[in-house]
Design goal:
The protein is mostly helical. It folds into two domains: 10-58, Arc Repressor Mutant, subunit A (Orthogonal Bundle); 69-201, Tetracycline Repressor, domain 2. The chain is built from ten helices and no strands. The chain has helices at 10-37, 40-47, 51-57, 61-72, 74-81, 89-109, 111-121, 125-151, 160-179, 186-201. The longest helix has 28 residues, at 10-37. The model has no long low-confidence stretch (mean pLDDT 93).
């Protein structure tokens, strides 16, 4: 007997479609109105869904904005899922370079919504907490790569947690510099950060 993949219930599909509609509409409203002036009422009106429907999918405005920014960062999240297993320092540098440059390019590409998010960071505790969680995940990923590099004899002995935090907070700072158009040469600042990272934490070739 032929095995058939079970189909998703129609209710589930409708729910997914509605959720995407809300997120897509919210993105447009945030870009037009900014964080402060955006309301659930405006999102529901423009999405042509009920006010309660929005709340059945999201906790509120902050939850929606966090999900919108998570979608922006999805490419970067996917890169973090790739196992860090370089065979030498050159491969390690290339891996770090790609991660950092990708983060800057995403900040540049999605500058308008990142500016809205920056506005929200100064007003909302839940937005700030979400971004802190993002940063913590980046620090954990960086720490794992540093542990690997030390175990393979590529990196010096240093406090991994402090080193990972310093590295990620530096990248985080430059992300907002890119968002605010204070840095334009993304390849240059990425190369400088790589020089700092590899001269500071990695052993001379």
């Amino acid at each position: 007997m032929e095995n058939k993949t079970p189909k998703r219930p129609r209710r589930y599909l409708r729910s997914r479609i509605t959720r995407k509609l809300i997120l897509d509409t919210a993105l447009k409203v945030f870009l037009t109105e900014g964080y402060t002036k955006t309301t659930i009422a405006k999102i529901s009106q423009q999405a042509k869904v009920g006010y309660g429907t929005v709340y059945s999918h999201f906790k509120g405005k902050d939850d929606i904005l966090n999900k919108v920014v998570d979608n922006v960062l999805e490419e970067f999240y996917n890169l973090l899922e790739v196992p860090f297993s370089p065979k030498n320092q050159e491969e390690a540098r290339n891996a770090y370079y790609e991660l950092v440059l990708t983060s800057f390019r995403l900040a540049e590409q999605h500058r308008p919504i990142m500016r809205v998010y920056q506005e929200a960071l100064g007003q909302s505790d839940s937005i700030a907490e979400h971004w802190e969680n993002v940063i913590r995940q980046f620090i954990k990923s960086s720490a794992r790569s540093f542990v690997y590099s030390q175990e393979k004899g590529m990196a010096k002995e240093f406090d991994i947690q402090v080193g990972a935090k310093a590295y990620i907070l530096l990248v985080d700072r430059f992300i907002w510099e890119v968002v605010n158009e204070k840095e334009e040469n993304l390849e240059h600042i990425t190369s400088v950060i790589m020089d700092m990272l590899f001269h500071g934490f990695f052993k001379p070739k």
